[in-house]
């Protein structure tokens, strides 16, 4: 693969930025983002997603632009824009289509356009290809070519990174597949897998995440059963996990941009092709109902109008990512039950929390105390390190420590405090 291949990465978020920085080590690479604020912060060497360190960003040869004209005439385009769902949980392909229009204006004959955004089988060839054709006036499969390569990275995961994971690739032709295998082969030490087709690569990604969602839903369902029996799922899992082939998923809130969203893409595709997906949608229902179920269990242990401190708002531990956080469901249900709720999260951006959820985050826990309940919602490292003294300071006598993630299972609570866990 010629190192003079010019690569444009469209969408510089959690996925696009690490990929673009890694590609820039091997190819002349430009990153385009629709957000001028995002480009400005990256130009200052700051990545708010915390996926690329400031020194790495500053040392990178990656060029950055918010101007669509900057990507004209590149050889390879990689699209890494969001694929959310709308209020009705239907796939929202507007960002992908908007990126197609931007790339469509920019491509010249011979270009390859690869999508990394998570979609359902058929989106690349049946929706993106025609849009690229319409805008560019070029013929797909003749003048330009499509590819798909799903992204598997995981926010905050420092082990499975863009340069270590196995990359699945598929091109519109065997030649394009080989070209993508060569490009991504330079990027990752984890090897490249050539999928049978673009549809197969799209399907592979969407079921990876749907499978996680369903497995977690099963654990959430048995969590509910065992609560009625008065036993903790965490105790049960410790015992079950001693079997060699037990799948040790943990219960909890399923948020974020991927696991709670992608199954709806699979469901839409299934319904469009005449199959009603039972397990996929049941998993979604169970996991989406988990926040309210947890809030109801906690509320049942409290007097009316309790003062509650919720620790953690991001969708998972040790990341600043607030997208689709289900902690919000817990907070809202507690408030609906008549309680007063304060929220703290040392990683979340206060402005984003206010904008997305209308939550005013506590600036710090200094001086906080007198709560009737502390809810451990997200096991950020500082919370996981709490000792008995921290609970003694935060809670009023008789207060309840509600541990959603089982992070305080090893902590002996001070006398007079009560504990509850899933
Ligand atoms: N976050 C993850 O860990 C992860 C993992 C695997 C796959 N994915 C998939 O990767 C895709 C991207 O996810 P993400 O988490 O990086 O999203 P993100 O929201 O972090 O980043 C997307 C970026 O694209 C930009 N953008 C949106 N529309 C654009 C357009 N038309 N032109 C140029 N830029 C545009 C946004 O400004 C934003 O900076 C999604 O399909 C997601 O499902 C994400």
Structure description:
The protein has 422 residues and is α/β, with parallel strands linked by helices. The protein has 3 domains: 7-196, 3-Layer(aba) Sandwich (Rossmann fold); 206-288, N-(1-d-carboxylethyl)-l-norvaline Dehydrogenase, domain 2 (Orthogonal Bundle), CATH 1.10.1040; 290-421, NAD(P)-binding Rossmann-like Domain (Rossmann fold, 3-Layer(aba) Sandwich). The protein is 39% helix and 14% strand. The strands form 2 sheets. An 8-stranded mixed β-sheet has the order 3-2-1-4-5-6-7-8, sandwiched between helices. Strands 10-9-11-12-13 form a 5-stranded parallel β-sheet. Strand 1, helix 1 and strand 2 (29-32) form a beta-alpha-beta unit. The chain is elongated. Residues 309-410 form the UDP-glucose/GDP-mannose dehydrogenase C-terminal domain. This is Nucleotide sugar dehydrogenase.
Number of beta strands: 13
Structural class of the helices, strands and pairings? Answer: alpha/beta
The CATH H-level superfamily of the largest domain is NAD(P)-binding Rossmann-like Domain
Bound molecules: nicotinamide-adenine-dinucleotide
| CATH architecture level-2 label of the largest domain | 3-Layer(aba) Sandwich
Assess the beta-strand content as a share of residues.
5-15%
The best one-word shape is elongated
| Head-to-tail CA distance between termini | 52 Å
CATH level-1 class of the largest domain: Alpha Beta
Strand order of the largest sheet: 3-2-1-4-5-6-7-8
How many strands, what sense, and barrel or not for the largest sheet?
8 strands, mixed
**Tally the helices: what do you get?**
15
Write the H/E string, N to C: EHEHHEEHEHEEHEHHHHHEHEHEHHEE
Tally of discrete structural domains? 3
Quaternary organisation of the protein chains: single chain
Output the CATH topology of the largest domain: Rossmann fold
Q: Using only CA atoms, what is the Rg?
A: 23 Å
Low-confidence stretches: none
Overall mean pLDDT: 97
DSSP helix fraction: 25-40%
